[in-house]
Amino acid sequence: MTAMVEERTVQATEVNDLEQAPDQPAQSTRLREILIGAGVVAVGATVLLLAQQLPAEAANSEFGSRWWPSLIGGAITLLGLAVAIVGALRPPVRDCEEPGATGIWQLLAILGLIVVYGIAWRFAHFLVVTPLLVLGIMTLLGGRGWRSLVLVPVVVTGALYGVFGLLLRVPL
Question: Ranges for the DUF1468 domain (predicted)?
Answer without folding.
Answer: 35-172
